[in-house]
Amino acid sequence: MSVRELVVLGTASQVPTRHRNHNGYLLRWDGEGILFDPGEGTQRQMLRAGVAAHDINRICVTHFHGDHSLGLAGVIQRINLDRVPHEVSAHYPASGQHFFDRLRYATAYRETVKLTQTPVAVDGVLAQTASYTLEARRLSHPVESYGYRLIEPDGRRMLPEKLAAHGIKGPDVGRLLREGEVGGVSVDDVSEVRRGQRVAFVMDTRLCDGVHALAEGCDLLVIESTFLDEDERLAVEHGHLTAGQAARAARDAGVRHLVLTHFSQRYSDPDDFERQARAAGFEGELSVAKDLWRIPVPKRT
User: Fold this and answer.
1) From residue 110, how far is each of 43, 69, 81, 114 by CA, in Å?
2) Which of 24, 84, 91, 220 is the most exposed place for a label (fewest CB within 10 A)?
3) pLDDT digits (tens, 9 = 90+) for 259-284
């Protein structure tokens, strides 16, 4: 059975706290795992969350500030120590190649796994598989930063009443899907388009075109909300979002489930982020993320 869920490994910004680890997020997508922004301590958080090195197929780094990337060294070495049997791909801003190289080879170890490096230099498609397309969009932060978006191909939803009306049943249903037509009945006659699911990951950024493009129509949007609205000036100055800004972007994009994360240590009450997100007009499902949470991707409508 396919599993589509977000495993939250860490939710702190800049520095870890007693209750929040540095960033780290694993998206389980059917049989594949995509690790986003492994900050310091990610390897230990993986252990606590029941995530193995074998679960990682792809690593996506938004930018090379330490809270989003210092865990790369340990994660990459663990992948090799455990002799992960599949190739692992890594995406990160091309301008940070020297940082990636330093982290990859921070200490001595034996390389046993093929790690394919695919740096990001422009907006666009990074990878295509049978189950998703991975895209990147430039964000607005003091260092080069990209957000990521995973899009499932559209499928078909068979309509039982129309199948019955055309006398299509049993093995002919599968044949119709494969071949597009059976006995003069086309797949369009008995089905409708089932829109593919969409998940986006938006870390350190001011509001910009990239935020809106990544969020558009998402079933699950994981987005930073480092500051509360009363500190919007600080957010703009340091290249971050407030809870209200993130929520308004999600509202305008038609997001179904909004996940707020990357919280400044200056705030002690996580409920404040939820209150400001609701005050901004977001009415969908809302999670103020906590370390080690598992958040399912919403079921298809």
Assistant:
1) 18, 21, 8, 12
2) 84
3) 999 999 999 999 999 999 999 999 99
Tokens of 119: 């740096």
pLDDT tens digits along 174-209 = 999 899 999 999 999 999 999 999 999 999 999 999
CA 30 to chain centre: 14
Which amino acid appears at position 45 of this protein?
A: Q
CA atoms of 14 and 66, how far apart (whole Å): 8
Question: 292 and 1 in contact (C-beta within 8 Å)?
Answer: no
**Active-site residue, from 30, 37, 67, 189:** 67
Cα 192 versus chain centre, distance = 27
Coil, strand or helix at 228? coil
* Residues across the chain: 301
Sheet with strand 32-36: strands edge to edge: 115-117, 88-91, 58-60, 32-36, 24-29, 4-10, 294-296
257: how many CB neighbours lie within 10 A of its CB? 20
C-alpha distances (whole Å) from 142 to each of 42, 240, 292 are 24, 10, 29
Question: Do the beta carbons of residue 63 and residue 146 sit within 8 Å?
Answer: yes
Q: Which amino acid would we find at residue 36?
A: F
Per the annotation, the verdict on 67 as an active-site residue is yes
| DSSP helix/strand/coil, 192 | strand
Paired sense of beta strands 191-194 and 58-60, if any: unpaired
Structure tokens at 25: 């997020």
Phi, psi for 163 (deg, rounded to 5): -60, -45
Q: Which residues contact 208 (CB under 8 A, 6 or more apart)?
A: 138, 139, 140
Q: Is 135 helix (H, G, I), strand (E, B) or coil?
A: strand
